Amino acid sequence: MKQGFVQMYIGDGKGKTTAALGLAVRAACAFLRVGIYQFMKGEQTSELALPWRFPGLIEIRQLGRPGFLDPGKPDPEDIALAREGLAILAGETSWEFDIVIADEILTAVTLGLLKDTEVEGLLEMRPEGTELVMTGRYPRDGRLTGLADLVTEMCEVKHYWRNGVEARKGIEF
Question: pTM for this structure?
Answer without folding.
Answer: 0.92
